[in-house]
Predict the 3D structure of the following.
Amino acid sequence: MEEQAMLATPLAHAIGVWIGALLTLMIFSFLYKDNPFYKFAEHLFVGVSAAYWMTVAFWTTLIPNLFARLWPSSMGSVLPAVADNQREWQYAIPLALGLILLTRLVPRIAWFSRWAMAFVIGYAAGTNFTRYLQSDFVTQVQSTMVPLYEPQATTMATIGNIFSQIVVVGGVICAIIYFYFSKEHKGGFGRAARVGIWVLMAAFGASFGYTVMARISLLTGRMDFLYQWFTGANW
Amino acid sequence: MRKGLVLAVLLLAVVAFTVHAQGEPPAQTDLPDQADPVADSRSVRPPARARAYDTPNDHGGSITLEWEISPDDGAPASPVTGYDILRSESRDGDFESVTGTMSGATIGTDNSAEDGVEYYYQVVALAAAGSSDPAAAGPVAARQQWVDWTRINLLVISVILVAAIITYVYLSTTRDLYIRKIAGLEAVNEAVGRATEMGRSILFVPGIQDMDNVQTVAGVAILGHIAQRTATYETDLNVPVSRSIVMSVGREVVKQAYLQAGRPDLYNDDMVHYITDEQFGYVAAVDGIMVRERPAACFYLGAFFAESLILAETGNSIGAIQVAGTAMPTQLPFFVAACDYTLIGEELFAASAYLSKDKKMLGSLKGQDAGKAIAMVAILLGVGLGTLATITGNDGLMSTFRLLRRLFSLNF
């Protein structure tokens, strides 16, 4: 029996590698054109992933975050750690909102589901307001609020620092001007906005190069997997 | 009989061993592994002036302790390795360790306190051979604060921004508010018109995030405008989504748009359809839709990650006019490179107001512009003050500069 189990693992592994390699080639075949192999891989991927995510959502969200809080003793068989917990009645609110969302299935009362959606969007707007205020507004303003002149160890370092600070402050101001919608981009304001878009494009260029390199490493990893499959090294 | 004899011999052996041990001379105290713990505790002097207080500006469950380091701490080759914080619910009760700090620390936090329960604390200096005498503190109880005063500046800034938005929303009801032309948004109507002329469909991708992401909310708001156009021109609309809530909201928005356009008969639920939550499964399916249905216009408006370039390149390969918009800094370069028009960050959020010309939304957009103006003025003021203060060495200017920076800090 033990021998069989030991044999089964490498066999299952080898089958997994073959399936993975063949599906990879099927997906890559899209680079040529749409074809039945790609369609097969696409539909398999979509079907399996949709089912997988539904299961994940059920076991990682619904069970621990909802059922285990409303009926902890009943969930003891699947989550022993929560069996002795107190019931948390406030979780009846998300349960009710979830049920309200399901009223979409009944056309006559489908309008009721808008309440749950309004809650989700309102929650998103409210929580994101303070989050973005902190990360994108307050922190940005404070970080840009720097003296243009700060003496450094050497004259060249001081000059370099002044140049750096001017680029940072000028770049931020010009970029904000670009996103200022209440005034037409004409004259000096327009020129500042144009500098702002150059600053943005320079930043995008740097980001583009950085991300492309990361994607190349992903491609390299996949090619390495296919090479090992081709040579039988990872069977 | 034999068992009794064996037991008696064993008993005698134990007694003899005990007597022999008691008769031995005392162990040498200069050997570290045989050191007297009481003597060692005196070799490391305790920390002083320990005090415990409820951690301010928090949501409860936390008590902060401060102390002065042991006189033996901080010296070269200091024997103190750290501090242990012990807790008990009574002054003479059993104290148990709740947290610890490194040597040299003068502050520690017990984050396992229960609100309303009074605790006594002891802080002891730890050494290799043992711990010092304790420095006592307490009793103290943790409690929740209603206001986090370290964030009061954020409240003030929020109030100013919200007041600006409300003011402009009010003004929008009495006068026309000017918004400059945004090229990328003009292209939205152009793309819908082109698809209609070609008799082909429009593909709208609202990103891969859920409705709790403001970019998705902005994308779905633009979807409403596009749906009104497709309803008016009787153009097919295809909206594949990767989140179930986005599907529900998307259907409501599109349905409402078709009703407003007076063409509810053209609407069907399948226009907005769920594919999968899996990022690349979703992309594979959308790519398939693109090459098979060959939409004339593709819109990518929302939050995107690595799928951005795959989608945009496929759209490019089928010759579709493409309009993208996102606030994801890492994905914007790909859209800029592969799409005809790209809404950059803030433009995406401005789009729904710009396209709908709704007065309240335009007022909100103007209010946000007021926020940007405040930011620019604050930055320029801070930079000017800081530069002058550094050049002149004026303490007053430097204090004002620091105060201004503090106003825009996360911990006022």
